[in-house]
């Protein structure tokens, strides 16, 4: 559950003062039916405190036409000439103002929110404004407030996969990673890897201590992780916790290394799709269940394909971004 959505934030949202990142957090929060009831309760309260004026559109249009007709009347006149203000000028000015307002609204997100994004096959390391470090895996995106990061909050929104090395601040400001998989990771100072894509999600804690807030089947849940823990969430929001003595294999991708442990060809095909934007098809089910173990270095999709197919004795045919695996 998103614990950062509270009454004050919703009131700011109703008033049009919420930032794009906050609006996105609210959208994710509203996907839960129980939160929708709270949302409308606060909306009713906000309406009572902020009486809104609902205009009669027909009357406004009629009034606008009357004003336009008055504009067309002579602004100054003498016996020799009369000057009229063309209505097309009024229309052009109105269109200009509408365009200006729409442009300002569209660029509002880019002004208030900073986005770090990686392309297929790209790994990128960046320092955040608070001194924390983030390494984004391929085809991933991280959004965070452009102003005040580390002062009022340290909330980021992740899509994809990233490893965070979080700096502890003197004001003990928590660092919160929000995802689109209905779980948040909260830390004070630690190193961890978050994976949040369409199929499943997982968090691996390398150092320190973190807590995960997530929406269970019937109620919000909270789990505290210790170093070496890996928490995996499936599409049904079921959690599975494993513990590893060494977690380096879960961040090997930062160095273009791939560590497989009885990893099926189906899972490797999904990795190729997520990291390189390929469309992979496997000819039969038996082939998809073949597994591979070991550590391999590959900087391109072609290198990884060659390693995997040679070890599994599999053939492949590539046409642009379409890959067919067969015996």
Key attributes of the depicted protein:
18 strands, Phage tail protein beta-alpha-beta fold, 8 helices, 3 domains, 31% strand, 3-stranded mixed sheet, alpha+beta, 327 residues, 32% helix, single chain, 13-stranded mixed sheet, Jelly Rolls
Brief overview:
It contains eight helices and 18 strands. Strand 6 and strand 7 (183-187) form a beta hairpin.
Structure description:
- The chain has 327 residues and is α+β, with helices and mostly antiparallel strands.
- It has three domains: 7-49; 114-249, Jelly Rolls; 256-326, Phage tail protein beta-alpha-beta fold.
- The chain contains eight helices and 18 strands.
- It has helices at residues 7-14, 20-29, 33-49, 57-72, 87-112, 265-276, 285-288, 301-312, and strands at residues 113-117, 124-127, 133-136, 141-145, 155-165, 175-179, 183-187, 191-196, 201-207, 210-215, 220-225, 229-233, 239-243, 257-264, 279-282, 291-297, 315-319, 322-326.
- Strands 1, 2, 3, 4, 5, 6, 7, 8, 9, 10, 11, 12 and 13 form a 13-stranded mixed β-sheet that branches. Strands 15-18-17 form a three-stranded mixed β-sheet.
- A hairpin with a 3-residue loop joins strand 6 and strand 7.
- Helix 1 packs across helix 3.
- The longest helix is centred in the first third of the chain and has 26 residues, at 87-112.
- The two termini are 45 Å apart.
- The model is unreliable at 52-58 and 70-80 (pLDDT under 50).
């Amino acid at each position: 559950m998103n614990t950062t959505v509270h009454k004050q934030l919703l009131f700011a949202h109703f008033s049009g003062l919420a930032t794009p990142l906050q609006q996105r957090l609210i959208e994710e929060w509203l996907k839960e039916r129980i939160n929708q009831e709270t949302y409308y309760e606060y909306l009713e309260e906000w309406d009572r405190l902020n009486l809104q004026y609902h205009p009669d559109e027909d009357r406004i249009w009629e009034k606008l036409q009357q004003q336009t007709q008055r504009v067309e009347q002579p602004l100054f006149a003498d016996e020799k000439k009369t000057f009229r203000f063309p209505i097309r000028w009024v229309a052009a000015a109105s269109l200009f103002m509408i365009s200006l307002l729409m442009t300002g609204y569209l660029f509002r997100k880019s002004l208030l929110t900073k986005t770090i994004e990686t392309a297929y096959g790209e790994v990128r390391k960046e320092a955040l404004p608070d001194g924390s470090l983030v390494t984004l895996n391929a085809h991933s995106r991280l959004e965070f407030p452009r102003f005040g990061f580390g002062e009022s909050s340290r909330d980021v929104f992740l899509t994809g996969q990233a490893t965070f090395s979080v700096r502890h601040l003197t004001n003990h400001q928590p660092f919160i990673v929000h995802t689109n998989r209905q779980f948040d990771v909260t830390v004070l100072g630690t190193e961890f890897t978050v994976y949040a894509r369409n199929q499943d999600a997982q968090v691996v804690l390398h150092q320190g201590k973190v807590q995960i807030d997530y929406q269970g089947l019937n109620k919000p849940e909270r789990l505290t992780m210790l170093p070496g823990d890996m928490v995996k969430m499936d599409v049904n929001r079921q959690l599975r916790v494993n513990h590893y003595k060494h977690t380096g294999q879960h961040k090997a991708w930062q160095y273009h290394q791939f560590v497989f442990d009885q990893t099926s060809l189906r899972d490797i095909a999904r990795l190729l799709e997520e990291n390189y934007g390929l469309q992979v098809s496997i000819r039969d089910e038996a082939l998809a269940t073949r597994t591979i173990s070991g550590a391999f270095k590959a900087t391109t999709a072609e290198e990884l394909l060659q390693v995997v197919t040679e070890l599994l004795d599999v053939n492949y045919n590539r046409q642009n971004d379409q890959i067919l695996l067969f015996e």
